[in-house]
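Journal club prep, shared notes

We agreed each person brings one worked example of a sequence with its structure written out as tokens. Mine is DUF1244 domain-containing protein. I'm keeping it raw so we can talk through how to read the token line rather than staring at a rendered picture. Sequence first:
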Amino acid sequence: MHHLDETTRTELEAAAFRHLLRHLDEHKEVQNIDLMILADFCRNCLSKWLVGAAEERGAELDYETAREYVYGMPYGEWKEKYQLDATSEQQAAFQAQQARKQGREESSQNG
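Then the structure, token by token:
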């Protein structure tokens, strides 16, 4: 992608991001905890990254507005309709993933 001009690259990245949001919207059965376990990010992370990107550019974007964009509706509504309580298996997998992540961070700091 280095051969593309910056505008084209940005447009492609934006299109891919919008596609990711559509994909997540089409797969509401994929819970945020599942995403955190497998990929170490979730819909809330995407919202925070949008807010951070806005701040870097001097634009105003609050977290709730970003979440509504990412979720396609107000977060409370999405949570009520689609979010399930994490199972004990999901909670254990998340804790294990966090422990592995912590171990990697400690290794990189000590190495």
